[in-house]
Amino acid sequence: MKMTVFYIVVVLAFFGLTHALFTDPSSLIRKIFTYALFAGVIYAIYRLWASRKPNHSEQQAFKKAAKYSKKRYGNPVSASKVKKTAKQSGKKPLPLKKPLTVRGDAPKLTVIEGKKGKKKKRMSL
Fold first, then answer.
1. Are 28 and 21 in contact (CB under 8 A)?
2. Is the four-CA dihedral 85, 87, 88, 94 of positive or negative sign?
3. Cα separation of 35 and 53, whole Å?
4. Half-sphere exposure of 9 (CA within 13 A, CB side)
5. What's the maximum distance between 2 C-alpha atoms anywhere in the chain?
6. Tens digit of pLDDT for each residue in 78-114?
7. Is residue 93 within 8 Å of 85, Cβ to Cβ?
8. pTM
9. What spans are recorded as compositionally biased (Basic residues) (predicted)?
10. C-alpha to C-alpha distance for 101 and 103, rounded to whole angstroms
11. Three-class SS of 59-109
């Protein structure tokens, strides 16, 4: 039922387009241009809105952190890939061994000196 309604609408649209093409082609071209312009404006607004979603500096910071994490921890194989390969080969999957990571230097921490002996004067009620 739904497909017959769809085909009827498509056939009527085809007849309407051919009638408009033969009776008034300039009007048809103007309408098509107007619809294309309207769709282009909507698309441009969407692209501007979508490009502002992730902050560019935040996106760069995330990519940098992901790159550092991959370099530090390696690229581990996911469990789903291991299961798929085990099913295909018919063998039991081998347990995953974590790669040995060499730790770099300890983080650079600094002590901030302050006035620890001086206490604030507080009002007592």
1. yes
2. positive
3. 27
4. 6
5. 95
6. 555 555 555 555 555 566 666 666 666 777 777 777 7
7. yes
8. 0.37
9. 81-90, 116-125
10. 6
11. HHHHHHHHHHHHHHHCCCCCHHHHHHHHHHHCCCCCCCCCCCCCCCCCCCC
